[in-house]
Amino acid sequence: MKATLDHVGIAVRDLAEALAFYRDALGLEIEAPEEVASQRVRAHFVPAGGAALELLEATAPDSPIAKYVERRGPGLHHLTLRVDDIHGALARLKARGVRLIDEAPRPGAHGSLVAFIHPSSAHGVLVELIETGGAAS
Questions:
Q1: pLDDT tens sequence across 38-94
Q2: What is the span of the domain harbouring residue 8?
Q3: DSSP per-residue letters across 114-131
Q4: How many structural domains is the chain composed of?
Q5: What is the chain written as a DSSP string?
Q6: What's 99's domain CATH number?
Q7: In a domain, 137, yes or no
Q8: Which of 12, 93, 117, 128 is most exposed, with the fewest beta carbons within 10 Å of its own?
């Protein structure tokens, strides 16, 4: 499985403060936000070289991001690795005994497919796999 860093997800409590830092202080461009209804989150991508930062803003109090910020506060949420074949990657990981949050991919931002690996199998890091390119399932 060849994987490339796609983006780093950052959970934010106060989007205005996050934008003041990433856009205004660092001078990074912020893409238009995208709603990811399945996760009840608004994603703001910030291109940064060959990868991006993803500022994650909860759109509902019961969303995974809202719960994360409530428990741990704002900050690093996940790392995302881009793969060419997400179904094959998940099958290989499952065969190796890796604990998966998603046994099958689900819709993500920008028309992608995504699946998460449980932090217990990734040394405490939530890892997201993403297949881009108009994938559908």
A1: 889 999 999 999 999 999 999 999 999 999 999 999 999 999 999 999 999 999 999
A2: 4-131
A3: EEEE-GGGTTT--EEEEE
A4: 1
A5: ---EEEEEEEE-S-HHHHHIIIIIIT----PPPEEEGGGTEEEEEEEETTEEEEEEEESSTTSHHHHHHHHH-SEEEEEEEE-S-HHHHHHHHHHTT--BS-SS-EE-GGG-EEEEE-GGGTTT--EEEEE-SS---
A6: 3.10.180.10
A7: no
A8: 93
Which one-letter amino acid corresponds to residue 119?
P
Give the pTM.
0.88
Domain assignment present for 136: no
Q: Tell me whether residue 116 is in a domain.
A: yes
CB neighbour burial string for 14-34, b if at least 16 within 10 angstroms, e if fewer: ebeebbeebeeeeeeebeeee
Look at residue 3 and tell me whether its pLDDT is greater than 90.
yes
84: left (phi over 0), alpha (psi -120 to 50) or beta: alpha
Query: 44: which 2 tokens?
Result: 């703001």
